[in-house]
Every structure is written in structure tokens, then in C-alpha cells.
Amino acid sequence: MNLIGELLIAILVLLGALFCGLSAFGLMRLPDVYLRSHGATKSATLGVLCVLTGAFLYFLFYVDVVSIKLLLAIVFVFITSPVAGHLNGRAAYRSGVPLWENSVQDELAPVLEQNTSSKQPK
After folding, report:
1. Which of 9, 21, 62, 115 is least surrounded by CB atoms within 10 angstroms?
2. pLDDT computed for residue 112 by the predictor
3. Nearest Cα residue to 78 out of 109, 48, 57, 100
């Protein structure tokens, strides 16, 4: 169990570091705010969750402590990071930040047009 636990923890932490590095690379290389937001929220969330899960398993297997703080951090990051990324993208869209010129589809435009036309007085 000792070797399997160490291997699992090491894999989780390394995988988390890889995802966080991929997220940083995406923030630097992706062309517009919407793709950067996607890169930041998806891969960074997964990376942080892997690192926190590795830390939780370390404390569980080797210190014999169930860390409620780490469990709460995992839940908090899992819930808040994707929601924050979604709201940042939506705020950027509503404030008029243009899409990348090679974007294929704009799914929010018809919804916003429908909402604004239904609110106008007749």
C-alpha cells in the first residue's frame, strides 16, 4: 500500500502541475479573451484539483489526518472557477469584445437579440 499510495500521490501532483503549465501556456498563446478564459478555467481547475487531491491523499495515508480544509478547498475550486470563467466571458461579450476572426460560431448573439427584442415596447 505504501508504494501504491506514493505512486498515486506523485501521479496526481505531477498531472496537476502539467495541467497548470498547460493553462499558463494557453493564456499566453490563445488569440482572444474567450479562448483564454476557457484555457484558464478548464485546465487550471483540473490542475489545482489534482494537486489538492494529491495533498489530501498524502495527509490521509501518511499523516493519518482527514483534512476538512483540503476537502472544502477542492469543493470551492470545483464550483467557483468554472462559474467565474463563464461570467468573465459573458461580461466580455456583453461589453463588445470581438470574437477571434476565425471563430466558427456565435451561439450567444441570437439569444441576446431575442431578449432585447422581447423587452422593447411595441
Report:
1. 115
2. 74
3. 48
